[in-house]
């Protein structure tokens, strides 16, 4: 039983890392309209016409972070169904190819490592000597089926999901802040952006499947001439599963030459 719980906690940690990773170098003041977890900001302006919508989408796209590689380290407090753990997440990304995650506990001991590609998820649990090899669809135990690899990659650097930047969205503005909302198949989404066009709150819900994801970015920092969020709070609920993570980043870099070491020792056995 303890082994199963640990495996699920490590998997959840890896998957949460995929849904929210940003970084830290130079702190930038937060806009006063930044919402907190559990709150949303109501923007009363009426929906703009199609030309204005296209212009707003173009502005948002122009403020998306571009990169070839990304690396970041975050002190993270993870709570899985009431069981809390403090870990450090080290994340590396090769854009459009792979996401590498290393999880370390106290004293810098690595307890798990993962590699996520557009097709697969691989995780080794070094504490228990077990591994997991699954198709990417395994993430749907923790996220909506509308999530794909590119979606995850965008969320990792604080970008807007590409699927939301379409003319099917509704845009409302107020004093430079933007609300992007609409539906994506079975999902209802609501996205808040500050005056700098960076995401301050992201909410996805699927009532029929009892799924909800709320990501709040409460502080922004400059990293290699890019504005990215730090101090990220994530709350994910799917039926009886509840996962919350608080990330505080202390290092981030873009476009460095990175390695993605990963192997499954022969003595390791498949996870339950």
| SSE string, helices as H and strands as E | HEHEEEEEEHEEEEEEEE
Number of strands: 15
Q: CA-to-CA gap between the ends?
A: 10 Å
Residue share in helix:
10-25%
Question: Helix- and strand-based class?
Answer: mainly beta
Low-confidence stretches: 1-10, 16-48
**How much of the polypeptide forms β-strand, as a percent range?**
over 45%
Rg of Cα set:
18 Å
Describe the structure in your own words.
The chain is mostly beta strands and 272 residues long. It is built from 3 helices and 15 strands. It has a 15-stranded mixed sheet that branches.
Which SSEs are present, and which pair or pack?
Elements: H1 2-19, E1 26-28, H2 50-62, E2 69-80, E3 83-94, E4 98-104, E5 110-116, E6 120-125, E7 130-135, H3 149-156, E8 170-174, E9 177-184, E10 187-193, E11 199-206, E12 211-223, E13 226-238, E14 241-254, E15 269-270
Parallel strand pairs: 7-15
Antiparallel strand pairs: 1-12, 2-3, 2-14, 3-4, 4-5, 5-6, 6-7, 8-9, 9-10, 10-11, 11-12, 12-13, 13-14
